[in-house]
């Protein structure tokens, strides 16, 4: 049987010949047949055609054939034995996603604890993503630093859930986010997008791409965007800017050099949400209420420099050397509440000020090679990588006194960094080298066995400037991370899969003796079934998982009180659940995204205060669909709509927060209508929260991080392609 040609699936044909050709590095299986023996005699393998997969802006729709997240080499979604979601360029633009956290709110299996746009915390399976990849090269991501990326420069977003330590060993338990860059095109193309909506939401994007020299050997692309809004909360202005420039240079017909620069800038008025009343009950106030000072300020700039060299070998092998250097700087100074509102309407406000400087370098070199064995085609990849993260953090806090919701906006200006009490002044460094290898072996055509291993050398180091530059460090020269999986094709459309994956994450928290805690270690078991329909235009997945987490840090508790600045490792945490996802095009002109997640978490603490996970609802549903009409009086119209629903969630009680803040579940309905005026000009109206549902989408403490969801709003947009 012959699979869809874009899939990384190999077969032994019974016909006399098979050639799966592509312009370069195609996967070919050629057999010769003797008259007296129809069996396969030779099998010649040349390349993996998925390296030539088209970007989602070209293929359109909501589905893609393959992904690279967590696999290093491109693989069909059915051949990756873990949970993968891919959000395409068309899906991003249909729902007006400008930042990664906006996208994650509407993506199956992901949970966002909202803050300002670009400063939210993104979770999967109960764990926060603490870095994001650009074409497989990682850099840190932190909500407080505002380094959640804008999306204008990216073709699609690939999301893997659960540990994946084979290629990202010192990463979080929740998985990997990989952003795939928009690449320069061989033909000239460009577009302009403009949007305007409620609360003075406005967005402008220009994207130009094409050949630079006469032969097309050098190609370039430039993307510039500006996103600005006054926000539905009073005084909560927010501006995000992106500049992206890229060059692809053909050194010869098999070798390409890619260079890129990405600058992202964020300037906003921070909103830390509302306090509760003195009993921990959520306030019934207008959604525009701003519990901060009118001088609140936050500014961040990040710069990414990316270089990549690829070569296609005559034997079908593929080599890649790539590097990403990032710098980030964030400055902030703002006020928010730290106590509940008393009966007389007063509460205590606090100021936070500081700055964060961060540099990161990630490099990767890999080689992949398909090969023939037992009459089938298998593949291996070997490689080495390096990353170094260095972060200088300074934070100070100051109690600003008693105030009210009416008065806090006018509270006197304070430069908290100058007059406050220093809470953090340190430098954290993480450095890691790794060697990795993965084998995808097909002993028989329907079965793929996947095994891999990684050996890492790392050092984590913290220098505390508040304690005479005291240094705490921990290292390991031979940390091994295994990986195993299997995929069994049931028929042309369905595959069973199972996998075991691990990850470890060095920690920068210190115990009572001033030593860094041991690294966290995560292990996940996952099983499921994947389906691919209509030649890959519709992808489905049903999965179940169990994840174990050891050594996660939590504040130490002694005699019922939290010990300031001292942490202990929590006992094992077990997270288990199930997911269902359906993405793609079931019928012509009809696109859908449907996802359901069930999550059950069992926390077993030992002598420490562990309040993580409780903001994760047990049930979460995401639905989005759109349909485009062709012919008749509705020709050129597009209509769409979706629902995002969560069950109840709450905070945990602790020595520092003895009262749990509870929030009821909610369901929010959105809609869209668009019209193609010409083949080059398209218009769209997005109606968000069309029933004007009033709800809290995040709760925190009695003083802060209790956040209303956005009221009903509308955004109009135009796109012109030239």
Automatic annotation (TrEMBL):
Family: Belongs to the TonB-dependent receptor family.
A Pfam family it matches: TonB_dep_Rec_b-barrel
InterPro entries documented for this protein: Beta-barrel_TonB, Beta-barrel_TonB_sf, Plug_dom, Plug_dom_sf, TonB-dep_rcpt-like, TonB_sidphr_rcpt
The organism of origin for this protein: Salinicola socius
Main location: membrane
Boundaries of every TonB-dependent receptor-like beta-barrel domain copy: 249-690
Any one GO BP annotation for this protein: siderophore transport
Ranges for domain TonB-dependent receptor plug: 77-176
Membrane topology annotation: Multi-pass membrane protein
Source organism superkingdom: Bacteria
A molecular function (GO) term: signaling receptor activity
Coiled coil: none
Alphabetized UniProt keyword annotations: Cell outer membrane, Membrane, Receptor, TonB box, Transmembrane, Transmembrane beta strand, Transport
Name recorded for this polypeptide: TonB-dependent receptor
UniProt keyword annotation of Transport present: yes
One annotated Gene Ontology cellular component of this protein: cell outer membrane
PROSITE patterns documented for this protein: TONB_DEPENDENT_REC_3 (PS52016)
Subcellular location: Cell outer membrane
